[in-house]
Amino acid sequence: MANRLFATLIAGTCLATLPMAAQAQTDFTISVNTGENHIRNITLQQFLSDLSEATNGELVGELFDNGQLYSGRDVPRAVARGDVDMAVPVTVYLSPFVPDLSVLDLALFAGVPAEQFNQIVDGPLGQDLSQQIAETLDVAVPGHWMLLGSAHTFGADQPIASYDDIAGQRIRIPGGAAILSHYQTLDADPVVISFGDVPVALSQGTIDGILTTNETIRSAQLWEAGVSSGFLDNVQTLYYVPIVNRGFWASLTDDQRTTFTDLWNQAIATERAEAIRRQEEAQAINAENGIAFTTPTPDEVSTAQAALQATVDDVAAEMGISDGTLTLAREVSAQ
């Protein structure tokens, strides 16, 4: 009896001294349609490295870039279905599911610099929009939005240095009723064409200008296609929104979800500062290549805003923006 008891105690002691089994590794996939040198890809790679280290290898993500898995337009549905675990699509690819996202393109926010816009998307309006995304697509939005940058009006043969100069110009836009209305209100002729066709369209005079960011002008070297001026009117500020498959998110422990969100928000704080720095650097490079920049005066902005603001209700109705979201947007823009 004593021998059996001793043997039992020894066995228990041995089991107690054995190392605990490590938490099983959870692999997940992220799909983006940009290349390895894009700020979105760079940020995601650093986030994945930090997440793996912080969880001792429990959470290991793999980034598939350049649209290897899904196009930007198709990726929201893919995440919702669980075909891919995570994506960070630009808001334009989410607005077909959540029309209220288009409120950010209304004239209410024209002229708002990126630093101030970050506070808007982190505040009550952005939180409400994130909740709508989560509920409509049945996904999780694990943290803050990633900044791409502010889009301005660039001119080619005829320099654009004021709101008056925009009148009569054929401006390429990415789409959207709010942006269309913006330029129509300024008596311009907005057109939607593929970005791949922009250099030829500029060179041949098919379009007179383009709404885009300084970084896009630099990366595409659009001064070679004739872009000669940049009017820093902050027509639109572009963001990417993190979305995570609901089933994958639910499979994580509370601690893992907390770590994921904390590290994501830390990564976004760094990314936003870098995005602004990159846009400033790109503007300097564009200027070196002959693009002349003009910033509208406060009086010019006020005059243009008076005309643009008068269109808000009609455009919001056309885009299907809810009354509640529009009211909240007005409150935020007035602060």
Which class best fits the helix and strand makeup? alpha/beta
The biggest beta sheet reads: 6 strands, mixed
The order of strands across the largest sheet is 7-6-8-5-9-11
Alpha carbon gyration radius: 24 Å
Topology, number of strands: 11
Number of domains: 1
CATH architecture assignment name: 3-Layer(aba) Sandwich
Low-pLDDT residue spans: 1-22
Question: Can you tell me the CATH class?
Answer: Alpha Beta
Helix content: 40-55%
- Give the count of helical stretches: 14
Name given to the CATH homologous superfamily? Bacterial extracellular solute-binding protein, family 7
Strand content: 15-25%
Essential attributes:
single chain; 335 residues; alpha/beta; D-Maltodextrin-Binding Protein, domain 2; six-stranded mixed β-sheet; five-stranded mixed β-sheet; 14 helices; 11 strands
Description:
The protein is globular. It starts with a helix and ends with a helix. Helix 2 (39-54) links the parallel strand 1 and strand 2 (59-64). The strands form two sheets. A six-stranded mixed beta sheet has the order 7-6-8-5-9-11, with helices on both faces. The longest helix has 35 residues, at 254-288. The protein has 335 residues and is an alpha/beta fold. The protein has a single domain (23-333), classed as D-Maltodextrin-Binding Protein, domain 2. It has helices at 2-17, 39-54, 75-81, 114-122, 124-137, 163-166, 177-185, 198-204, 214-220, 246-251, 254-288, 298-309, 312-319, 323-333, and strands spanning 26-31, 59-64, 86-87, 139-140, 146-155, 170-173, 189-192, 209-212, 229-240, 243-245, 292-294. It contains 14 helices and eleven strands. Mean pLDDT is 91; it is low at 1-22.
